[in-house]
């Protein structure tokens, strides 16, 4: 979940609530779903929140939400934009994997240290979330005064920059934190940031690049050029975003523009010229969705006046009008919809362009609930009658576990993930052999630890590991487990055959085959099934002291004295008798 | 009169005139001293004997003390070396004297400290002068040490000297309680009247019961306060006990239990849940994909509806995600990261048939997440999952249900923090007061399933759901510090054996 650093002094300044205490901010923030996690060294709050309201990834956005919560602002706000001067031309050489670009021009911004830090944080947080670590969308911010558009060229109709592809070993530029001209390929190979993000573009035939009249100045999504680096001196900015989805980068752009507008900047549109047509960006169009009064009441379990609902919408930074049949909205508050004969009251809700989380009218109901205060709701136990019960298998597991515990076994709970070494090699079992545990394991793709590479094919190895880790504890150690085992089986729908096994070990100085069989017998008697133990061979057990567990005529497992080779492998200095069989045999 | 054998023996051995110690009586009767002591106290209860107690003090040389008996006390050795070096006449350099004394290590400090204390001379500016009149030969501490070494009594020795030796750790002082027994007048009378030994038996035997002999015997008394040997029974694993408790509560609240595959298609684990395919939790870093072919069968119409929901959203004003969606990814098999895959299977009608509202379902089953192993995180843990399906459920019903559930575990004062999940709206993180510490802690995640989840599944009423890690509940209830001690092959058997059972 995203964590954003927000300084309470900045909050006081940006909300205009100069005398709010830190504590009171914390409470208000919790109500917004922003949880106080701690403080940075310089006293900024570290706030954690769900990754839906990405417009709150900076202090400007958090302050905006607070102003709505306090009722200082109401309804939808859209910053004024100036007409475009710049054009982003998308060249046909642009990499097909990353074809989209958007952006804006920012004028008259006052970037003090705090504002610049906040902008950088916002950029990073957006990269981490919506931008999917820059793969889906990446933001570049430049000092506009360092960019040379081509307005002076004879054939030009205005200022223009170009988004295009560049040969990895083609043009050079000086990257941020670099001290010499480098090709894009050299940046990926040698530059710190370049190495970090190389994976995003290294497979591309041509790399994404942005050019102005002077040449290459940005290598998205990897790094900007040093020439256009932003500082606290910068007053005019060029924001560009590239990515794999136009909507995503447009919304990221909107969030950045709203944050800068909150600092007093003027937003100037740009034209984005694709071969297929021209877009004007940033896209500040206000979306609308319709939600019924009834749905709001049912979902929240509260009866509302329409006036109240409209007020709650406006306090959420949304706009609400009563929808008139399928026509446009009528004014709220002057309506007749409170009357009895109103058919169905539906609100047409307008949604500001920084919101990225509103996919469905339900999301608007949630906003009403938050504005109303969910903790104001009175919990009630639903008046719904149903009959409870346990799953058949879980009842069986419990019954068998009770019997095992009655027989003196310590009930264990082991991991299902383990390694081939544990279930096969260390048990003397050959992979792919017919014996219990010898099945083809379901392997984890690209495992992160050599200890967890497969699902266990049988349960006895887990109990042997517990014995191995408890040789300093008092004996006897009689352990049992009922748990999942699995093997790969392509004839099963999920390709993994999952079974529950019952396994037990008796580790004691005088443990014998008979001890294990005695307990098996009791267990089988408890469950009224017939047990036979014809001799068998299993590499984990001593020859001549191993038997198949045959229940009601079906071979379901193995019982025997564990082979000394296996005992020594597990650092055990006393004999172990053991059994393992399929739980279903006791159904 | 009949008395137990040991009491009779003690009575017979005791005298009315001479005090006899327990040791004496033990020698005479052949009983163990503790048996004599016990018998004597029992006889005293009846008034037949008097028991006097006194404390004997005994001194014994420590190892260091024994060394000094051999070599002489360090300060005496220093003094002798000083006199030899002529320090009785004029001060001699300290280093030289110490060298001549043959002392080394901590013995030097000991010598210097006691040299001054005993008035053997002075130490000043690194020079040492000896008092020629001091009589190191008659050092009282040496005398006591020598006496102890010879096994002589030191009862007459100066108390202060003994204290000094004890504080120098050269002598151990031991105190022992000595009990002496004398017959009282009642005891003498009793003996004159005659006592018989009652027959005592150690164990009640089947033969005694059969013969009726038990009526004439006296049973030896056991020390019923003594520790008995350790005995161990089996015990249900504490996490299972907790799971059973949770299941009890939920069944009592009308929930039916779900079970289903641990390895499942991403479709059931994530796509049905309206988790976009490029969601960070779906990257390979967070999930355990299995190296097996894709799932064989998925309900085709459902796949289509789920894909539609992802791409276009549901309902008139619904929007989809601006994320890629591929059926290949949906069909890939992984270990489930949550048991909501079971909820999806059940709600789809493909597990136990079409479900008509109202329904309540739950599971307490294992899930797999690629997290860093630490005291509170495991790669595999149990998730409690539950949902209620009914017409017109509200957030208030959800709150009421969870308040009731957590109250069963002593967790009250539930707070609902608005939250975001891709699959529920509204969503809440649940916070509750720790029953012991009073701290506000996160105890679950909940919400109303979105239309984008329910519509493709063919559910046209409301479903509220919640989830919580069982281990978290266990740790809250028991205060375990490290979950690895109880779950997995690193489990400490002793800890499990000693863990209090759940009531």
UniProtKB/TrEMBL annotation, chain A:
UniProt GO molecular function: ATP binding; magnesium ion binding; phenylalanine-tRNA ligase activity; RNA binding
Chain residues that bind Mg(2+): 357, 363, 366-367
Enzyme class, UniProt record, top EC level: ligase
Keyword Ligase: yes
Keywords per UniProt: Aminoacyl-tRNA synthetase, ATP-binding, Cytoplasm, Ligase, Magnesium, Metal-binding, Nucleotide-binding, Protein biosynthesis
Location(s), subcellular: Cytoplasm
Chief place where the protein resides: cytoplasm
Domain B5 residue range list: 284-379
Catalyzed reactions: tRNA(Phe) + L-phenylalanine + ATP = L-phenylalanyl-tRNA(Phe) + AMP + diphosphate + H(+)
This enzyme's EC code(s): 6.1.1.20
A GO cellular-component term linked to this record: phenylalanine-tRNA ligase complex
GO biological process: phenylalanyl-tRNA aminoacylation
Cofactor(s) named in the record: Mg(2+)
Pfam families documented for this protein: B5, tRNA_synthFbeta
Family per similarity comment: Belongs to the phenylalanyl-tRNA synthetase beta subunit family. Type 2 subfamily.
Assembly notes: Tetramer of two alpha and two beta subunits.
Entry protein name: Phenylalanine--tRNA ligase beta subunit
Organism listed in the record: Halogeometricum pallidum JCM 14848
Gene from which this protein is expressed: pheT
TrEMBL record, chain B:
Binding site for L-phenylalanine: 340, 383-385, 423, 449
InterPro entries membership: aa-tRNA-synth_II, aa-tRNA-synth_II/BPL/LPL, Phe-tRNA-synth_IIc_asu, Phe_tRNA_ligase_alpha_bac/arc, Phenylalanyl-tRNA_Synthase, WH-like_DNA-bd_sf, WH_DNA-bd_sf
GO cellular component: cytoplasm
A biological-process GO annotation: phenylalanyl-tRNA aminoacylation
Residue span, Aminoacyl-transfer RNA synthetases class-II family profile domain: 246-498
A GO term for molecular function: magnesium ion binding
SUPFAM superfamilies: Class II aaRS and biotin synthetases (SSF55681), Winged helix' DNA-binding domain (SSF46785)
One Pfam assignment: tRNA-synt_2d
Protein keywords: Aminoacyl-tRNA synthetase, ATP-binding, Cytoplasm, Ligase, Magnesium, Metal-binding, Nucleotide-binding, Protein biosynthesis
Cofactor details (free text): Binds 2 magnesium ions per tetramer.
Reaction catalysed by this enzyme: tRNA(Phe) + L-phenylalanine + ATP = L-phenylalanyl-tRNA(Phe) + AMP + diphosphate + H(+)
Subcellular location(s) per record: Cytoplasm
Broad enzyme group: ligase
Enzyme Commission code: 6.1.1.20
Alphabetized Gene3D superfamilies for the sequence: Bira Bifunctional Protein, Domain 2 (3.30.930.10), Winged helix-like DNA-binding domain superfamily/Winged helix DNA-binding domain (1.10.10.10)
Binding of Mg(2+), residues: 425
Co-factor(s): Mg(2+)
Domain of life of the organism encoding this protein: Archaea
CDD domains listed in its UniProt record: PheRS_alpha_core
Family classification: Belongs to the class-II aminoacyl-tRNA synthetase family. Phe-tRNA synthetase alpha subunit type 2 subfamily.
Subunit structure: Tetramer of two alpha and two beta subunits.
Name of this chain's protein: Phenylalanine--tRNA ligase alpha subunit
Organism of provenance: Halogeometricum pallidum JCM 14848
Gene giving rise to this polypeptide: pheS
